[in-house]
Amino acid sequence: EDQVTQSPEALRLQEGESSSLNCSYTVSGLRGLFWYRQDPGKGPEFLFTLYSAGEEKEKERLKATLTKKESFLHITAPKPEDSATYLCAVQGNGGSNYKLTFGKGTLLTVNP
Amino acid sequence: EAQVTQNPRYLITVTGKKLTVTCSQNMNHEYMSWYRQDPGLGLRQIYYSMNVEVTDKGDVPEGYKVSRKEKRNFPLILESPSPNQTSLYFCASSLSPERTMNPETQYFGPGTRLLVL
């Protein structure tokens, strides 16, 4: 069964203090790894899709990377508006339902 | 604006009173899915639909029904709600996952918070 573990569960940063969030996964054939951002009371908002080991994608202060076992979401010089829960999900080739298997998320708080 | 909408956004009900949560998307997506989000458990798939009239169970289907009579709509039905169905529900949609080898992005609705007393 596909599994996703995110760490840390919560991270508190000062504005401008760069850091990384980790997503470890096991999947029977990776179809894709997704990063979403979720604000309180809202639905997950798509950030990135990564397909294969070695791939990197960037968007503003965020950069996602992928290896065969884990993905990192690097946050460079974060701002308070980056505060949110960041969710990692995988889609494997093992089933026919194309479901996303989610981790429990990392709650990021950026203090001004 | 491309979006997934859900109604109602908040609902308080009592045990056994049938309810329906609607989901609609305007992106002409073939694939639609329902998830529930619970503290400490993350998001889990309830049901999914590959296209009109094609639905199947996800990981936690007990106590739920769905239908897909039109491409844009995918309602979630709780015929006899129980307190353990108190949760935050999300509908998601994407282009057909069978179109290409690469995964299609699933776009999520704003969520429906359900409390069953």
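DSSP finds no helices and eleven strands in chain B.
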